[in-house]
Amino acid sequence: EEFYKSLCSDQIDLRRAAIINFSDFLVQRWYTSSSFMLDKCDKKILFLIMNQLLKCCNDPRSQFLFEAGRCLGILGSIDYSNFAQFDQEHTIYRKIARIPIDDTSLIDDFGKILLNELANAFLVVSESQYQDCAAYAIQEITAVYKFSTNPSKEKHLLNYFTDVVQEVIIPHLTSSYSSKSTPCKKTSDILFGISCSSYKDWIKLWCSTLISSLSDGKFRSSLLKPCYAITRYYVPIAELLLPYLIIILFDENPSWSDCISKEILHILKLVQNNSRINECEIKAVETIFEIFDFLTDYLIGETSEALKTTIHNFLAIFCKKNLCIASLACKSYARSLKYLEKYVSEQTDKNFALFENLY
């Protein structure tokens, strides 16, 4: 606590001395695991310290850039989600826009994000058939949120968007695009490297396959099923929706965990068996890690105990050692250290030979 006060001091010399002393302390205690620090230290103070160090690193002209960076490097294996309960003013972990279960009176954060992405897709894609796919999704989703049922409400809803996005949305409030029924695809087959030859093909096919598996007649399905066509052509929409689809399918039926883990384990195994992985495999692994991060963050504030249990059980399927190796292959070193620490802490014999080798 005294260090934090010194770190926030207006006196530059005091701040410099505080950061240097803290850096030296961490270097001397480099062997102390982050789990030990989280157990022994006041998490709230540790959270504030890390935020202040991040501020020091945010300015490239900072006089404390090197020492603050060294402190953060040593603390780098601490999972920021541990500090979620203290994050009221600053963002150090990703805020998750939760997808609504039931109809709401106003548009929610997820709806805003999705419509913004669809409007961007409409503006970016050049082929008319792809534009039609984005237009259909915008038309259907604005109808779900009841944009056009009341002129005053419609104006209020549109105010959530920039003028550019409004120009895209407004014509589709009265458009009449139609779509064939979404085909139900087989979900038990491995897709990566078998049905798809590139990352883009894989992410689009996996996402559209999961959309086709959503149950009909539910509010969340009415938001995502209209996106089936555009996800087959536009990668950013597929990347946005993929983790949400996994959440929804887990909520509908926990057995989906087996199908989705099968695809992920296949990719991780490919990475483990190849001494040199290609760009396609790297991007696929990075997407998997983003899914894991999303699921971890989604647990924060989740009220459904059944869904929380399903997510916990799903994340527990994946061996931390394998995740560490996959992180190393992708040159994601901080993440690799995090998984390594978790793996070693779970071993009863404390396999330090393995620790040293991986380190």
TrEMBL record:
One of its GO terms (molecular function) is protein serine/threonine kinase activity. Its EC number is 2.7.11.1. Keywords: Kinase, Transferase. InterPro entries: ARM-type_fold, ATR-like_M-HEAT. Residues 197-351 form the Serine/threonine-protein kinase ATR-like M-HEAT region domain. It holds the Pfam family M-HEAT_ATR. It comes from the Eukaryota. Coiled coil: none annotated. This is non-specific serine/threonine protein kinase. It comes from Henneguya salminicola (Myxosporean).
